[in-house]
Amino acid sequence: MQASGSRDVTVLLSAWRNGDEQAGHELMSEVYGQLRKLAGACLRDERYPGTLQPTVLVNELYLSLFSRQPVDCENRLHFLHLAARQMRNLIIDHARQRKNLKRGGNVPKLTLDEARDHAILVDAQLSDLDDALDRLEQMDERSARIVELRFFGGMTEQEVATLLSISVATVKRDWEFARSWLLAQLESK
Question: Which of 27, 140, 152, 179: disulfide with 88, CB 3.0–4.6 Å?
């Protein structure tokens, strides 16, 4: 999937890793649409409209990636996996910052009924999900990766299977296990 006149993502990744900063910028241009789609998938259940938009998330990802040494990625899917993981971290950080705000600030104004039902629940659930994913990773790293790639990365079962070099059936089995395990963890809270 290469646009005419553009360089291959694998070539750009290699050049960026070897110190070609322009290749890194070209890489971001090449995958921007996919990153924006990933960000939209990550934020589709966001309960506070306007607090974190897909474009802002991709921009934060860009700043995060270019504020340190280039990452060691093999190909487009590997890069998108890394991006999904970083987006997860950025979303969790954003939710924790929002949760820690005292009065006013960027916290949306809600009626008491809305606040009772949603105000803290969303941030707490996201934080609880992150904690549960960390525990799942200790127990079954591959299942945790699959959740991260599917939920935060918006990848298909086939894309996950390709990236992790496993069968689609294994992805499905691990996805079902991880979902059930995570739901049980979140319900026990």
Answer: 152
Which of 68, 69, 62, 55 lies closest to 27, judged by CA? 62
83, 13 in Cβ contact below 8 A?
Answer: no
Indicate the pTM of the whole model: 0.59
Q: What is the DSSP string of 21-78?
A: HHHHHHHHHHHHHHHHHHHHHHHTT-SSTTSS-HHHHHHHHHHHHHTSSPP--SSHHH
DSSP 165: T
Ranges 66-75, 78-87, 165-174, most confident: 165-174
How many distinct structural domains can be found in the chain? 1
**2 belongs to a structural domain:** no
What average pLDDT does this structure show over 96-120?
49
Alpha-helix runs per DSSP H in 67-140? 76-100, 112-114, 121-139
175 and 158 Cβ atoms separated by less than 8 Å: no
Rounded to whole angstroms, the Cα distance separating 12 from 6 reads 10
Q: How many CA atoms lie within 13 A of 78 on its CB side?
A: 10
Q: Which domain holds residue 65?
A: 9-187
pLDDT category at 80 given cuts 50, 70, 90 is confident
